[in-house]
Design goal:
With 853 residues, the chain is an alpha/beta fold. It contains 18 helices and 15 strands. The longest helix has 108 residues, at 205-312. It starts with a strand and ends with a strand.
């Protein structure tokens, strides 16, 4: 797994959207001051991939930037040649959302059904990467606090991580498959054994021989019955000619009886037809008479309606005239209204004239008052100017004595004028204020009088215009009333009644009644005519039935029956009667009765002859009974005997076929039982082989062996790194599910890695992490264990300069091997040694990211 691009927003210190493009990065540092959010970059990756962050677990909403409603992280990453993108967001309150996509055909597409649901998407991501969270944070991304867990953590967890990293679950699947094959083989063997004990139980060569003997005996019985069946058939053939003659006699007798029944039925029907003909003729006369009376009533009603329409007009015309009459009523009412308005207007006009004259007089008075006030205002203003001048003179005079130089013209002052400066000025100002107030009041009164005068003149003009409009309207309405009255008078015979609408309404009602009466009479006439026609059809119905009965008598094959009886040896025979025409029902009925009697006599003669012939069957039956001997029981007729022998032969044939089939089936079962016995033995052996294989593949054997081998290889590779990092002092070893450190400076002393100091633990953990990243490809059974990236987030600040230099060289060597290596550090000496830095910069708004090369 190799990150390609990371985008974050609202995540811990990154309030605003930030992004990092890892596409061309191989070896780089993630640097910045403490608390700037360096580790949050790795946390964002585990959040996007697994929805989990080491320091908060699944409570990821606690990482939302302060004041932000939600956080969102998008991580694009590559696994081999495949590219994926996951976007995960969590609100302050509510459910987390996710979308997992893959790059296909130049575009991002949803990675599968359920890739937008958290549970399904998490499983898809783990399957794509090939690592769960624990394996990922011990082999790809080593966060703070978990750096040393692979070295000193739980042994079982360490082995589980190796199983997933190295694909050792393959052996678990192989063990499961072997167990499944063993169970399948055992089930097949048990099923075969069950069949041998149930379906094939009792099958042997002796049983097959007995079945073949029974089949031979059944074949002999079948042959004897076949010979008896031939003998009886021959005797039955001799009887068949006589039986055929008997059947012909019986059939002819039956046909004669049927013909006699038809003739008797026709005789009864012809009697009923004669009665119906008489009744139908009487009904026709009655209904024809009623139809004539209804026609006369219809003519009278239509004549009355035509006379009324000729005098008054049609109902439609009366409706139009009634509308004109109603229009006349409305026109008269409109005329009355106009005349009333005209009268009221003429009555009120003098009052409007008086109001206008008074307003005009008031306007003249107030205009005079306003002019007087304006003149007095001008006088007050002149007086104020004079007072102000006097006041100025007094001001200049103050302090000047005769003989002084004049402050205005510079001449010598001979004498001083007298004046009252302040008192005269105040009086002028008061007078001017009063006059201004009087002038404003007079102007306002003048304006009010002018508006009142204009309103009065406007009302008078409006009244005159309305008067002219009403006069014109009265002339038009009088003309309308006269026109409607003339038209109505002309339509109503020259004289207009006082209430033409009521007269027209009465005429319309009467005319509608006449029209309804005419329609009713016409309908009744049609009904009477239809009834007469129906009676005529009913009169014709007996004639049709008479023809049918005539045809039925003609259809009786009298001549054919007489000829068939003559051929069968019956005589003497009557001649076929002549059927009269289909007009006289009584005469035709007499012929039908006579024909029925003759045909019944013929049927009796045929039945007697058939009975005489049947007595010869007993002799032939005795001969046939001797032919079958003891093969079957006695019966009453040759036909029954022949059928009984044939049935017995069929039953014996079925028994023979079943016995033959049973024998054949037993032979096949015997062969199948032998083959099944061999297959059961083969399945038992197969089950034993796969049982042994599944036991060899159990986790406590081969998987445990491979885990131990991998851990020892990692310890050896880690020793090389640790020796270089510690200047040759320490090596690593693995014994009894635990890592040990060998101290070469202290006599090859070996002690548990759990006893190391903080700095020593860091070096040993780093050495093991570097070894795991290097060796996992060669140790793994599956392609998914390719570790294309490694992120280290641990305390480089605890290293002395020399050790730090050694660590940097080891990391540089690892980064040059085609994998991405990122180091989270605040140690400036380490950050500047690496070719690229991702700088995390703090600000009051939040942290930001930039790539420095």
């Amino acid at each position: 797994m190799r990150p390609v691009r990371l985008e974050v927003k609202g995540f811990t210190a990154f309030r605003d959207p930030q992004s990092v493009d890892f596409g061309d990065l191989d070896l780089f540092a993630i640097a910045g001051p403490t608390g700037s959010g360096k580790s949050s970059i790795l946390d964002a990756m585990t959040y996007a991939l697994y929805g989990y962050v080491e320091r908060v677990g699944k409570q990821c909403s606690r990482l939302i930037s302060q004041g932000q409603p939600r956080m969102a992280v998008t991580l694009e990453f590559a696994v081999g040649d495949r590219r994926f993108r996951v976007t995960r967001s969590t609100p302050a309150r509510g459910a987390t959302r996710i979308l997992f996509e893959r790059w296909e055909d130049g575009d991002w597409r949803q990675a599968g059904e359920g890739a937008d649901h958290v549970r399904e998407a998490d499983a898809m991501i783990c399957n794509a990467i090939g690592l769960d969270y624990d394996a990922f944070t011990r082999s790809v991304l080593l966060p703070q606090g978990r750096f040393a867990e692979f070295l000193v953590g739980d042994a079982k967890n360490r082995r589980d991580i190796l199983t997933e990293l190295l694909g050792l679950e393959l052996f678990e699947r192989l063990a499961g498959a072997a167990g499944e094959l063993k169970r399948s083989a055992s089930a097949e063997a048990d099923a075969g054994q069950h069949l041998l004990g149930t379906e094939y139980a009792g099958v042997s060569a002796e049983v097959v021989s007995l079945a073949e003997t029974a089949a031979d005996e059944a074949a002999a019985r079948e042959a004897a019955l076949a010979g008896a069946e031939v003998a009886v058939r021959r005797i039955a053939e001799r009887w068949a000619e006589t039986a055929r003659l008997m059947r012909d006699l019986s059939a002819c007798a039956e046909d004669a009886n049927d013909a006699a029944s038809i003739a008797a039925m026709s005789a009864r029907s012809l009697e009923a037809i004669a009665v119906a003909q008489a009744e139908a003729q009487a009904l026709v006369k009655e209904r024809v008479k009623a139809a004539a009376a209804a026609g006369r009533a219809t003519n009278r009603a239509e004549a009355a309606r035509a006379k009324a329409e000729a005098e008054w007009g049609r109902v439609k015309d009366l409706g139009a005239m009634r509308a004109r009459a109603e229009e006349l009523t409305g026109a008269r009412e409109d005329l009355q209204g106009v005349e009333a308005e005209l009268k009221d207007l003429r009555k009120g006009r003098p009052s409007l004239e008086r109001v206008a004259a008074a307003a005009e007089q008031l306007l003249a008075t107030r205009l005079s008052n306003a002019e007087a006030a304006a003149a007095e205002l001008e006088e007050a203003m002149a007086a104020l100017d004079e007072a102000q001048h006097a006041d100025l003179v007094a001001a200049v005079r103050a302090g000047v004595t005769p003989g002084d130089t004049c402050p205005v013209c510079g001449a010598k002052v001979e004498s001083l004028p007298k004046g009252k400066r302040v008192r005269s000025l105040e009086k002028a100002r008061t007078l001017l204020a009063n006059e201004k107030e009087r002038a404003a009041s007079a102007t306002q009164s003048l304006e009010e009088a002018r508006r009142a005068n204009e309103a009065a003149e406007r009302e008078l003009r409006d009244a005159d215009r309305e008067l002219e409009r009403l006069k014109a309207g009265r002339v038009k309405r009088r003309a309308d009333v006269a026109a409607v009255e003339t038209a109505l008078a002309r339509a109503m015979g020259g004289k207009l009644p006082s209430d033409p609408a009521a007269v027209l309404e009465d005429r319309a009602v009467r005319l509608e009644a006449m029209d309804a009466a005419a329609r009713t009479a016409a309908e009744q006439a049609v009904e009477a005519k239809d009834s007469a026609a129906a009676a005529e059809r009913e009169r014709d119905a007996p004639l049709a039935r008479l023809g049918e009965e005539r045809g039925r008598l003609d259809a009786i094959p009298v001549a054919g029956l007489i000829e068939r009886a003559r051929a069968l040896g019956i005589g003497p025979l009557p001649e076929a009667p002549r059927i009269p025409p289909a007009k006289d029902a009584v005469g035709l009925g007499t012929v039908a009765e006579a024909l029925a009697a003759e045909l019944a006599t013929l049927a009796d003669a045929l039945d007697r002859r058939a009975t005489d012939l049947a007595e010869g069957e007993e002799a032939l039956l005795s001969e046939a009974t001797l032919a079958v001997a003891e093969l079957t029981e006695s019966v009453a007729s040759l036909a029954e005997l022949a059928e009984l022998v044939a049935e017995r032969r069929r039953l014996v044939a079925a028994d023979r076929a079943k016995a033959t089939q049973d024998a054949e089936g037993l032979r096949r079962k015997l062969e199948n039982a032998r083959a099944l016995t061999e297959r059961v033995a083969d399945r038992r052996a197969r089950a034993l082989r796969f049982d042994a294989l599944s036991k060899e593949l159990r986790a406590d054997r081969i998987i445990a062996f491979l885990q131990l081998e991998a851990l020892q290889i990692l310890a050896a590779a880690g020793s090389e790194h640790l020796s270089r990092l510690s200047d040759g002092r320490y090596r690593l070893s693995y014994e009894a599910d635990e890592f040990y450190v060998v101290d070469t400076w202290n006599g090859e002393e070996q002690r548990s890695a759990r006893t190391l100091s903080g700095g020593e633990t860091f070096l040993a953990s780093l050495a093991l992490a570097l070894a795991l990243s290097e060796q996992v490809r060669s140790l793994s059974l599956a392609e998914k264990a390719r570790l294309d990236s490694l992120f280290l987030d641990e305390g480089f600040g605890t290293l002395d300069p020399g050790t730090l230099e050694t660590v940097v060289e080891a990391i540089e060597q690892l980064g040059g091997d085609g994998r991405m290596v990122g180091v989270v550090t605040h140690v400036q000496e380490l950050a500047i040694r690496l070719p690229t830095r991702i700088e995390v910069e703090k600000s009051p708004r939040g942290s930001s990211l930039r790539v420095v090369r």
